[in-house]
Amino acid sequence: MAKGNTGEMSFLQHLEILRWHLVRSTVAILIGATLAFLNKHILFDIIIFGPKQPDFVTYRMFCEFTAWLTGVGLMCLTEMPFEILNTKMAGQFSTHIWVSLIAGFILAFPYVIWEVWRFIKPGLHDTEKKYSRGVLFFASFLFMLGVLFGYFLISPLSIQFLGTYTVSADVTNFIDLNSFISTVSTVTLASGLIFELPIIVYFLAKLGLLTPEWMRTYRKHAFVVILILSAIITPPDISSQVLVCLPIVGLYEISIKICARVVKNQKKALKTT
Fold first, then answer.
1. Pairing state of beta strands 82-85 and 7-8?
2. What span, in angstroms and rounded, lies between the C-alpha atoms of 6 and 45?
3. Residue 145: is it exposed, middle or buried by C-beta count within 10 angstroms (0-12/13-18/19+)?
4. What is the mean pLDDT of residues 181-196?
5. pLDDT tier, 214 (very low <50, low <70, confident <90, very high otherwise)
């Protein structure tokens, strides 16, 4: 339990402190959302609709890579054969608001993590604080890395596959605005949260809820879950699922190392007390 200048704090005092951390975090998200809302051109034309353009950086890289590998640009795009439509009166305005909120959360994420850290830090022992240095940086770094991974890899692959797929030449794709934007924003945000796996494992290990032995024992089960998760957030083709699986599997293996390190440090701390 966190300690203040007057000793142990009551449950209600903890709730009051938590409330203010949540208030400050919410304000930070709203500030980020306001900035995103006011920069509509950057948010939508450049970022959200970027993967819709045939010259998007991911498509160019895959085009050049396949041309180098096979001599033929197998993944080169000249156009995206679909149109985006809005079918609701307030569709564009409501979409502008909730996309801005998601952007605000992404922008404010380092500060939100900092507020969470400020709440739990007083309850840690000096040795725990020592071993927990860098958590704030790595949590923010992993989240942003996941966001970039989702935006520059998973989203373009999903749009390229699903947007150009047709069952017949007689069928033209007209994609709803919400459907397109939810694909980009949801996948991007989900990837950022998935990349927080090592940080989640770190805290679960600190709480004694997770051990490296348990993670090794259920490694195969975890890989099955990863495959299912990859199939959900990627288009239904093997190459995309493999591209998503590899970094998540790597994160799982890193998480085992982190869990083992936490348990080792806890045992060492018990011996010295």
1. unpaired
2. 54
3. middle
4. 89
5. very high
Q: Supply 44's token pair.
A: 């939508």
- Which residues partner with 173 through β-bridges? 82
Extract the tokens encoding 199: 């940080």
What is the per-residue pLDDT across 1-22, written as a single tens digit (0 to 9) for each?
Answer: 444 444 566 767 778 888 888 9
Nearest to 267 by CA among 215, 217, 205: 205
CA nearest to 80, candidates 167, 174, 153: 174
**CA angle, corner 41, sides to 40 and 42, nearest 5?**
95
* Cα 152 from Cα 5, distance rounded (Å): 48
Domain ranges, ordered by start, for the chain: 9-189, 196-273
In order of 117, 118, 122, the CA distances from 9 in angstroms are: 18, 15, 11
Instruction: Evaluate the CA torsion angle 153, 155, 156, 158 in order and state its sign.
Output: positive
Strands 173-176 and 82-85 come out as parallel
Query: Cα–Cα distance between 120 and 114 in angstroms, integer?
Result: 10
Per DSSP, helices labelled H in the chain are 11-38, 40, 57-70, 91-120, 126-131, 135-149, 155-164, 177-194, 197-206, 212-217, 219-233, 238-272
Compute the distance between CA of residue 246 and CA of residue 154 in angstroms, rounded to an integer. Answer: 13
Mean pLDDT to the nearest integer, 78-90: 87
CB 152 within 8 A of CB 57: yes
Structure tokens, 150: 């989702």
Contact 163, 80 (CB under 8 A): yes
Q: Decide if 189 contacts 147 (C-beta within 8 A).
A: yes
pLDDT digits (tens, 9 = 90+) for 239-263: 667 777 888 899 999 999 999 988 8
Three-state DSSP state, 174: strand
> Which structure tokens are listed for 154?
């998973």
